[in-house]
Design brief:
The complex is a heterodimer. By secondary structure, chain A is mainly alpha-helical. Chain A has three helices and two strands. The two termini of chain A are 19 Å apart. Chain B has 24 helices and two strands. In chain B, helix 9 runs antiparallel to helix 19 and helix 21 packs antiparallel against helix 22. Classes of the chains: A mainly alpha, B mainly alpha.
Chain lengths: 86, 595
């Protein structure tokens, strides 16, 4: 596989990963935290509901997990496609 | 026993001595060190410094206060200011590091093969950063006003001198290591009082968990207790949704996109050794930020409960606190101290010797007030920006905690103001003067120009900070809107699309910046000068879209204009397409090169 093909495949895989990650990013914040909160109002969390928890804490924890997952996955992708720095 | 004033001075003085000591020890020599610390910074160190740089007066001093008095609806700040790091880590940081230049506008200038694009980017950066510094100066004024026990205005003027002296000292390198020290000070200052208060109220030493725990005194869940006590005084329930959903979504989105478009944060990712490190750095930065952001909602809720209970010591059905108690009971000393800053005030309107704190705009409360002979809310002024700094005093914590919080608040404001001033000065000296006006400028003169630019920026920000367009966090939110509408779309399109050309990028940035800036000025006053506005955020120009939420709309305008203009003009040349391809893969990332 030429360098060009390798980097195209790498870029496609990267964009796919980004789209999935951003979908989760949007669901936990704009979704669970704001728009879908009424649907989660039945699930009680310490004096309030799950939507309130996502808006105040849950989304932050998911954001953290997403960034570390992405970094880990991309570093693997770099190696698989032979486009890493070393 | 030392008095509180001496104790504050001691804590603030000692922390400053450490920062300045580090700045001298690591004084910047070459231009490369001044801007980017020679790229020798480990991701964890870089993450910590980014966190200090990022968490400003807005996060430390202002945010919990805004959450405390509004509740759920202001969760937007929490999600917005953390969610942006996901965009930064996934969409920008690794590619900008691979590109390997010093500033954001250099990337825009090269990618869009246009000096005009670079100039426009510089202007966008300067506008957004200056607005941001205004918000910082507001916070600096509150912090200095309190710990020197002087008026807010004098505090602001003294603070401005300190920030300037501090920022001129070193470049990024000085700033990187001092910022690590500042992070340590500010996170301790934020969490230690929160732990004490959480223990007092819920028995849980982790404030983030205490927030969802039970209130020891009443046995009810803390949030349920808070909901009912504020509702009894006619205020909106803490945990329910009141504002309109559209603004909540747009505001959160503006803060997120703006985070990924602010130069002083993006610049951080130029300073890591490798592309992989840029990805990790964003994660580490968010770890250190999350420590504060997970604590902030607890601080807000618990402070609101404490304040309400102090004003109604025997419950909302009994008598309110008496004027005499406020004057003599040590529990209310904090009200006396804060009154001196002019940011807190009360007035016994009905002359009954008690201070009734309630929502006098609420219809049901008006009835109750008439029945009880109250003639309006008597806690007449409670500036949101004082809440975090006053919090340990409100909870009656030991003096050293109060001193620590004063030092932490200043660390937060100072570190960000310094980072922003650095971004502004590098935009002027490196991009504007060296890149455009006088490419042969000597290193010495470039550094001199950088410092002059810092001086001008701080004078403008201080002047506008005297009459800020909002509380610190609200002013800062405007800066995010501007960055969201101008810089982020250009960076993202530059990496993810080869189709957007020079004309598209320039038109997009200009459209996004101008429309957003004009929309903000129409609502907040031209150049933030009070009383020059034609609309207010209570009754905005476009239906319900507030000027604080407009950044997301501005970003969409930027994307759309760039796309349309690019489709109508000459295609991107091949060598630029190759450049974009190379930015997308980490392979071949070397050290940065200067122009």
């Amino acid at each position: 596989m030429s360098d060009k093909e390798a980097s195209n495949a790498y870029w496609k895989a990267n964009v796919r990963l980004i789209l999935w990650s951003l979908l989760i990013w949007a669901i936990v914040s704009f979704g669970f935290g704001i728009l879908l909160r009424p649907m989660l109002s039945g699930i009680a969390v310490g004096g309030s509901d799950l939507g309130f928890w996502f808006a105040q804490q849950g989304s932050i924890l998911v954001f953290l997990a997403l960034i570390f997952f992405y970094a880990w996955r991309m570093n693997k992708l770099d190696a698989e496609h032979g486009v890493g720095e070393e | 026993m030392m008095d509180q004033f001496t104790l504050n001075l001691l804590f603030v003085g000692a922390s400053f001595a450490v920062y300045i000591g580090i700045a001298i020890w690591a004084r910047a020599g070459s231009t490369s060190e001044f801007y980017a610390a020679g790229r020798g910074v480990h991701p964890v160190t870089n993450g910590m410094a980014t966190a200090a740089d990022w968490m400003s007066a807005a996060s430390f001093i202002s945010m919990a206060g805004l959450i405390a008095f509004t509740g759920y609806d202001n969760s937007t700040f929490l999600m917005g200011w953390t969610g942006g790091y996901v965009l930064l880590a996934l969409l920008l940081a690794p590619y900008l590091r691979k590109f390997g230049k010093f500033t954001v506008s250099e990337f825009i200038g090269d990618r869009f093969y246009s000096k005009t694009a670079r100039m426009v980017a510089v202007i966008c950066l300067i506008v957004a950063s200056t607005t941001y510094v205004i918000g910082q100066m507001t916070g600096v004024g509150v912090a200095f006003g309190r710990f020197l026990e002087i008026s807010n205005t004098s505090g602001l003027l003294i603070g401005a001198c300190v920030v300037f002296a501090y920022a001129v000292f070193g470049g990024m390198k000085g700033v990187t290591y001092t910022q690590v020290a500042q992070y340590v000070v500010l996170i301790m200052a934020y969490t230690i009082p929160a732990i004490f208060i959480s223990l007092q109220l819920t028995g849980n030493p982790v404030p983030a968990l205490g927030l969802f725990g039970d209130h020891v005194a009443s046995g009810e869940p803390l949030l349920a207790k808070l909901d009912s006590i504020v509702a009894e005084l006619g205020f909106a329930e803490y945990t329910t949704h009141h504002s309109d959903t559209l603004n909540m979504v747009l505001f959160t989105l503006s803060l997120m996109i703006g985070t990924a478009g602010l130069p002083h944060v993006i610049m951080r990712f130029f300073t890591v050794p490798r592309v992989a490190d840029a990805r990790w750095s964003a994660g580490w930065a968010l770890v250190f930020i999350a420590l504060l952001y997970l604590t902030a909602p607890a601080v807000g809720a618990m402070a609101r409960l404490n304040i309400t209970e102090l004003m109604w010591p025997n419950g909302t059905d009994a008598q309110a606190v008496s004027v005499e108690d406020i004057a003599s009971d040590p529990k209310y000393d904090w009200m006396q101290t804060w009154q001196k800053t002019g940011l807190l005030d009360w007035e016994d309107k009905n002359g009954d010797g008690r201070i009734q704190y309630y929502n006098d705009a609420d219809a049901a409360m008006q009835e109750k007030a008439t029945a009880n002979g109250w003639t309006g809310n008597e806690l007449t002024k409670f500036n949101r920006d004082i809440l975090v700094l006053a919090n340990p005093e409100i909870a009656n914590l030991p003096g050293w905690v109060i001193g620590l919080v004063a030092a932490g608040g200043l660390a937060a404001a100072l570190s960000t103001a310094a980072g922003l001033l650095l971004a502004i000065s590098s935009a002027v000296s490196h991009d504007l003067i060296k890149g455009q006006l006088n490419p042969n400028i000597s290193e010495k003169n470039e550094l001199m120009a950088a410092r002059v630019a810092m001086g001008v920026a701080i004078v403008v920000a201080t002047y506008l900070g005297l009459n800020p367009p909002g509380f610190a966090a609200q002013t800062v939110a405007l800066a995010f809107g501007l960055a969201a509408a101008s810089i982020f779309p250009a960076l993202m399109m530059g990496i993810f699309s080869t189709k957007i050309n020079n004309h598209g990028a320039v038109a997009g940035m200009l459209a996004g910046l101008l429309v957003t800036l004009i929309y903000i000025f129409l609502h907040k006053g031209w150049f933030f000068i009070p009383d020059t506005n034609s609309f207010t955020d209570a009754d905005p120009l476009l239906g319900t879209i507030k000027s604080t939420s407009f950044g997301a709309v501005g970003a969409m305008i930027n994307f759309a204009v760039a796309y349309v203009v690019a489709s109508m003009t000459k295609e991107t040349p091949q060598e630029i397409k190759d450049l974009v391809e190379s930015v997308r893969v980490p392979k071949g990332a070397g050290a940065a090169t200067d122009h």
